[in-house]
Amino acid sequence: MRGVISGLTRRLQDRYVELALDQLAARARGLAGWIDAPVPAPRGELQYSPLMAQLLDIDSPHVRALGGSARSVLDWRTYAAAAVSRGWPRDPSYNWRGPDEVARAVYKPARGMHAPAPLPFELTTPAGLCWLFSHSIGCLLLRAASDDSGDLEADARILHGLPCKRDADSLDVRVRFARGGHGLRLRWIEHAGRRHQDPRAPGFVRAARAVGTATLTIVTIQHHAVYTHLIGAEGFVITNTLCLSPTHPVRRLLASSEYGVLRIGELANLTLLKPYGGLHVAMNLTGAGVGQLVARARAGYRARRVHVLPGMLAARGLDIDDLEWCPALADAAAWWALLRDYVRDYLAVAYPDDRALAADAELGAWTHCLEDHVPGCARAGAGPRELITEACAAMIFAGTVYHEIVGAQVWELASSPYRLSGRLRRGDTPETMIASRLESMRAVMIAFGTTIRSPRLMRDWSYLAPPGPARGELAAVMGDFLPRMRALQRALARRNDARPIPYTLLDPANLECSVAV
Predict the structure, then answer these.
(1) Are 262 and 230 in contact (CB under 8 A)?
(2) Which helix (H) or strand (E) holds 177?
(3) Which residue in 415, 380, 323, 410 sits closest to 102, CA to CA?
(4) Where does 398-469 have alpha helices with state H?
(5) Of 53, 72, 65, 52, the residue nearest 19 (C-alpha)
(6) How far is residue 47's CA from residue 24's CA, in Å, rounded to a whole number?
(7) In which region does residue 150 sit, left (phi positive, over 0), alpha (psi from -120 to 50) or beta (all else)?
(8) pLDDT tens, 106-121?
(9) How many angstroms separate the CA atoms of 375 and 4, rounded?
């Protein structure tokens, strides 16, 4: 009986992947001329069409079934040559390149997004883990170690005690780093109570995979879904809509950050966070576990500790003036300074003195309502002008810089479970430990289904200046935002010249104006 059920499960999985790939091929037909341009295959293998990389397993039945619908965009002679090339069909690192290459060949150009750069390291190595926490999503989990050693630890405590699926491996992890120069150095990993230091010793790769899965789980649910979308972006948009008229100066200042926010939040609720939704399928947690993690994230949100960068760094024991060991945080700090100064200059024109600020009844209602929808904006000892400046800068920061860190690289990191697997099982080989083909393809379809094209931030927003006597001056401040971003772009390029590993994710040209992408 167990064999029959297992066979039916495999058939259902193959059928699901077949349909998913069919949809990907249909989306790609319009780009056939571009897609068919050959690119170098990995490790010097034969050249192949980028779209062909969606074929997860050369020998599986669903690949043969795909031929009828995708023949117009696939170079089957190249496919046949690659299929018989030495080692390619059997090497998992090649078989699982599919979703990642589809992202580059179909999804990114079709959505107008920048193509991701190749990862510089395998993420199960010490160098790869250091890159993950200094140049990618792991930077948001770092905090100063409690023993005053100057080291850093990755904070994964929010996962402790959450209900997981029966076959799930432990995500009870601690990671310790030494900082210095332009990067980090791994000291040790602690997984399920056992410490690992030697990357050649048994168990190190398994522990590294647990770190990656824990990091992906926390950032995806806590920092991306809850902090950025459901509280940060949505909370500001709801408050703006309730309290500010369409021509209000603050509403116009924040208008670009409102684009598509409520729509993308609704899509996320319908596909990801619902019972037995995408997050439940793709991760170690049960449906109840996902719900509890969302509840914990909501309860722990404070705007000043998440989206006001100096407050976030202070809460983690980090110094905003000493961040070169983490290029992601260093560039985020440069962005925060730019956004804060931009908002401050705008408000100085809209409200020349504190009396004008206090006389605005709409803005007064906004500041009171904001605390209900975006908790933790208030700060003891700060005046109204300073609080409003920080709150407005936080909304723009959340929808651009913070969202880029938590969302832009997740596609590339998770599109192949051999990089960061959203699911980690108890097993003896990578194939029995990491996410299944079904779960990986589910993640691919989630990315398609929860994306709206958003305008770039790096443009002239002066047309949004509100009507009134100060329109010309406000338009000048908003128009100056573009030259400021260009100056920051040049400064970040100079920084990268001195870095052993360049960090280009927060280049102003890469950022969208809101969380809708």
Answers:
(1) no
(2) strand 173-180
(3) 415
(4) 403, 410-414, 430-433, 437-449
(5) 65
(6) 21
(7) left
(8) 333 333 344 445 677 8
(9) 52
* Torsion (CA) 159, 164, 168, 171 in degrees, nearest 10: 10
**Cα–Cα dist 388/226, whole Å:** 23
Residue 392 CA to residue 250 CA, distance in Å, equals: 8
Count of CB atoms within 10 A of residue 331's CB? 24
User: Which pLDDT value is given to residue 105?
Assistant: 35
More confident residue, 447 or 437: 437
Provide the pLDDT for residue 517: 67
Q: CA distances (Å), 1 to each of 4, 10, 167, 432, 461, in order?
A: 5, 14, 20, 22, 64
Nearest to 351 by CA among 366, 338, 371, 372: 366
Residue 331 has pLDDT above 80, yes or no: yes
Q: Name 320's Cβ contacts closer than 8 Å, sequence gap at least 6.
A: 309, 310, 313, 333
Nearest-angstrom CA–CA distance, 225 and 284:
17
* Contact predicate 421/400, CB 8 Å: no
Summarize pLDDT for 198-233 with one digit per residue, the tens. Answer: 999 989 999 999 999 999 999 999 999 999 998 999
Q: Would you tell me how many other CB atoms lie within 10 Å of the CB of residue 470?
A: 17
The two three-digit tokens of residue 406, written as one number: 């938590």
Task: Summarize the chain as % helix, strand, coil (round to 5).
Answer: 60, 5, 35
Determine the Cα–Cα distance for residues 236 and 373; give it in Å rounded to an integer: 7
Residue 96: pLDDT over 90: no
Is pLDDT of 154 > 50? yes
Give the per-residue pLDDT at 409.
83
Q: Do 162 and 289 meet the contact criterion of CB atoms below 8 Å apart?
A: yes
- Contacts with 478 (C-beta within 8 Å, 6 or more apart), sequence order: 253, 346, 460, 461, 462, 464, 465
Q: Is the Cα dihedral 245, 247, 251, 256 positive or negative?
A: positive
Band of pLDDT at residue 260, cut at 50, 70 and 90: confident
β-partners of residue 196 are 189
Compare 447 and 358 and report the one with higher pLDDT. 358
The highest-confidence range among 2-16, 85-99, 459-473, by mean pLDDT, is 459-473
Specify whether the CB–CB gap between 357 and 385 falls below 8 A: yes
Q: Alpha-carbon distance 463 to 241, whole Å?
A: 20
Note the pLDDT of residue 117. Answer: 55
Neighbours of 504 (CB within 10 A): 15
Q: What is the reported pLDDT for 83?
A: 34
15 to 81, 364, 452: CA distances (angstroms): 26, 56, 27
- Mean pLDDT of the region 36-47: 32
Quote the DSSP letter at residue 413: H
